[in-house]
Design brief:
By secondary structure, this protein is of the alpha+beta class. The chain is built from 6 helices and 15 strands. Helix 1 (17-28) packs across helix 2 (103-122) and helix 4 (218-228) crosses helix 5 (236-251). The longest helix is centred in the middle third of the chain and has 20 residues, at 103-122.
Length: 278
């Protein structure tokens, strides 16, 4: 089965009935990708799944060895899932399938979150802890911490353009960065209903503040993008790629800070900023 996340095609090969069922469940909620002319496939990865013996303890330590973008590596949340490969194109993943039927689906989703964030970074994109909404003029990404109003904004003010409520995927596309529908919703499970769109705005969202808007300096924008980047750890090669991606986005399209009372729509103020732009 093939799943597409922006410029990444994932060829999933389950090695058992339990893993086939898990793959089917993940695919059923995976958004479509009808925009390959705007966001071309840059990486096709073969993902071979196998069952892993063991049970799930309360603590699942994170394991990282090597750099998936540069050679042999091993990555996982031991023992929930462990993956290894040599580069990003061929990946072997072991997933615990017991004690509950939901275990393999959860393990597969967790692996895909980690893998897609790593692969996007290697391709020049960036996964962000953010909401994203597509409108006729393009996509807006809203940065905020957990509990910062991302899901509420998407539920109330996205119309049919929801791209993400927790993990926004900024990817290389035609003419610059694009935002694609995210297959990784937050705890409330808001589905991505919008279509991929070019990135036109990044907003640092302050929930409950007085309605106000200000353009942020590039250095402040870079710091916020690095803070909100969805990356597995702070290994040096990863940090360097995150900073490079953040710097590109901080320069174009840049970032605004928006104070927004929880009952207000952001679009009147943001649309005014687009009209005022040179």
């Amino acid at each position: 089965m093939d799943l597409v996340a922006g410029p990444i095609r994932l060829q999933i090969e389950p090695g058992s009935t339990a893993l086939q069922n898990a793959s089917d469940a993940v695919a059923a909620r995976w958004p479509a990708h009808p925009h390959e002319l705007d966001v071309p496939i840059l990486l096709s990865a073969r993902i071979r799944l196998a069952e892993r013996p063991g049970r799930l303890p309360p603590n699942r330590p994170y394991v990282r060895e090597g750099d998936p973008a540069r050679g042999p590596w091993r990555l996982g949340q031991d023992p929930l899932w462990m993956a290894q490969g040599d580069g990003l194109e061929q990946v072997a993943v072991e997933i615990v399938t017991h004690p509950t039927p939901a275990g393999p689906e959860y393990g597969l989703r967790q692996f895909l979150r980690y893998y897609v964030s790593e692969a996007l970074l290697a391709l020049g994109g960036l996964a962000l802890h953010a909401a994203a909404v597509a409108r006729p003029e393009g996509a807006t990404v809203f940065l905020a911490p957990s509990g910062g109003g991302k899901t509420t904004l998407v539920r109330r003010h996205s119309g049919a353009g929801a791209l993400a409520d927790d993990m926004a995927l900024v990817v290389p596309g035609r003419g610059g960065p694009w935002v694609v529908p995210s297959p990784f919703p937050g705890r409330e499970g808001v589905a991505a209903t919008g279509l991929a769109a070019p990135l036109v705005r990044i907003v640092d969202l302050l929930k409950g503040e007085t309605l106000a808007r200000v353009r942020l300096p590039t250095a402040d924008a870079v710091a916020l993008l690095v803070l909100r980047a969805k990356v597995p750890d702070g290994a040096r090669p990863v940090r360097e790629r995150v900073i490079d991606a953040a710097l590109r986005l901080a320069r174009e399209p840049g970032m605004e800070r928006l104070g927004l009372p929880i009952d207000r729509s952001p679009w009147t103020l943001l649309d005014a900023s687009m009209r005022d732009a040179p």
